[in-house]
Amino acid sequence: MRRKIRNTSLNYKILVVDDEVGIIDSLTVVLKRSGYDVVGVTDPLEAVEKIRSEHFDLMVLDYLMYPIHGDKVVETIREFNSELYILLLTGHKDLAPPLETIKALDIQSYCEKSDRFDQLLLLVESGIKSISQMRTIKKFRDGLNKILQAVPKIYSLQPIDSIMEEILTEIMPLVDSKNAFILVDDTTDIIDENKSIFKGIGKYKAEITHFMEMLSPTLMEHIGYARISQQIVHLEEGVIFPLNNEFKQTIGVIYVESKNIEDGIKLLEIYTSQAASSINNAFLHSLVNMKNDELNKTYDQLKLRYMDTIEVLRLAVDAKDIYTRGHSDRVAYYAVKIGEAAGLSSQDMETLRISGIFHDIGKIGTADDILLKTEKLTTRELIEIQKHPLKGARILSAVSMFKDVVPVVKCHHERVDGTGYPEGLRGDEIPLLARIISVSDAFDAMMSDRLYRTKLNLKDARQQLIMGAGTQFDSDVVSMFVELIDGFGFNEMMRETAATYE
Fold it and tell me: Mind listing the pLDDT tens digit for each residue in 137-177?
């Protein structure tokens, strides 16, 4: 506890008032050793003027002084300052002011002088705790008042861009922050339910290209997790708040960059719930408040830049291992071919294609020594590599444009017999598109050289798929793919793949 007090004591300023210089010097040394900012004076009238002109959190005050006693000092101070925490000292118990006087003057603590300062230091630390609690209460009270004042502004019918900036502006003082952004979905079907926009403030008040460069893979993953779990995510540099509407749906996130955010967490929770409703309300009036083409331009720019960012990450994954280079493109190609054979819709085909390209995006956070290991993985390493479907799903969940892709990426290592990962789904619990990616992924892996083994020939790879049907793979998907290999010809498929992704 003492260590904790020392870590925070530099935020508190103490005034020591005693007409004995020796007492001032001794107390100053003891309190400064504990990390407090200490000022000492011997004149009680000077102490009153210091309190009037400077900010102090706590005053250690001697009772018997000249020209006025401590009770008169407190009486004068209380005329203009009711919040100062006062600890009264006396050298003689019998000469201390009566209890009624101590209560009437709101003197919070009392201590007899001693050659040892242990008791005094404990009382100071107790006082600092009380001051800290009062600071929190005051901050919460002031924050609630600001929220009440801000709510009418963010609910007013104005452009969505202005409302989002207003929300960020109101958040900043609640948590002593300068940098934040909102990433939010269009919650109506006026334009496209899978479109997102952003607004930044501080260093995040940037063009979309620069903004996307600031989103590290880790931050993107955490944004996705906040959206999926509908929970606040604490990071070293800040906090991500999911924006949940009245239907318990997450329509976006607010990221606030601050290292001093704990006291403001509850305030931000209250405010972000109001912010989500106001944004939802703004979208309902979007055609009134913002031109359709302006919304489309904002949406399309974000989609393009986010796709570019994901593509860079995907290529970074490929670059980690020359043996798997081009793997994602081939998986996407095989998956689309299976989708065509299954008669899927054009929308499902596009989802399949994107899922194939980005199915291993979660490996961006996996250490090279695990990805490139030639020996058998340890249990710890296996657990780490098996996290990549979830990591990939979280990265893609950051914006709504990948909403349909997320469950495919998340489930592409599930097995129909229920022994897969990350959730051990079985049979039809696994999305059909994920079952298609699973077969495509496994086939290309078998047909590619790896650090730990050479590739299989076509006949053996085909046989492995058939043997895995009904346990690892969906039997119908395997049947369709085997027919494609036999009918269309694997070599022809490979030439088409190269032509498509060259």
Answer: 666 656 555 555 555 554 455 666 777 787 788 777 777 78
Residue 311, token pair as written in the block? 């593509």
Contact 226, 254 (CB under 8 A): no
Global pTM reads 0.65
Structure tokens at 178: 């300068």
pLDDT in tens, 89-110: 876 666 666 677 777 778 888 7
* Cβ–Cβ under 8 Å, residues 15 and 59: yes
Residues 458, 451: contact at Cβ < 8 Å? no
Query: Which parts of 136-289 are beta strand (E)?
Result: 179-185, 196-201, 233-234, 238-244, 250-257
| Fold of the domain spanning 156-292 | Beta-Lactamase (3.30.450)
Query: Structural domain boundaries of the chain?
Result: 2-130, 156-292, 321-501
CA atoms within 13 A on the CB side of 12: 28
Residue 315 sits at the vertex; the CA angle it makes with 313 and 316, to the nearest 5 degrees, is 60
Average pLDDT, the chain: 80
Place of tokens 């600092």: 128
Pairing of strands 238-244, 179-185: unpaired
Nearest to 125 by CA among 81, 93, 85, 97: 85
Q: What is the DSSP letter of 447?
A: T
CATH superfamily of 2-130: Response regulator (3.40.50.2300)
Decide: 165 and 282 in contact? Cβ < 8 Å: no
Measured CA angle at 279 (ends 274, 285), to 5 deg? 130
Q: Which amino acid is at 435?
A: R
With a CB cutoff of 8 Å and minimum separation 6, the contacts of 465 are 439, 442, 443, 473, 478, 481, 482
* Residue 185: C-alpha distances to residues 141, 156, 249 (Å): 31, 19, 11
41 and 29 Cβ atoms separated by less than 8 Å: no
Q: How many residues are present in the chain?
A: 502
Residue 194 · residue 214 · CB < 8 Å? no
Rg over alpha carbons for the chain, rounded to the nearest Å, is 33
Superfamily the domain 321-501 falls into = Hypothetical protein af1432 (1.10.3210.10)
For strands 238-244 and 233-234, give the pairing: antiparallel
Nearest to 24 by CA among 44, 8, 54: 44
Give the 3-state secondary structure of 417-443: ECCCCCCCCEHHHCCHHHHHHHHHHHH
Q: Which two tokens stand for residue 56?
A: 């102090």
- Reported as a pLDDT band with limits 50, 70 and 90, residue 351 is very high
Say how far apart CA 134 and CA 84 lie, in whole Å.
11
DSSP secondary structure letter of residue 469: B
DSSP string, 9-34: GGG-EEEEE-S-HHHHHHHHHHHHHT
Categorize the per-residue pLDDT at 7 as very low, low, confident or very high, splitting at 50, 70 and 90.
very low
C-beta of residue 328 within 8 angstroms of C-beta of residue 359: yes
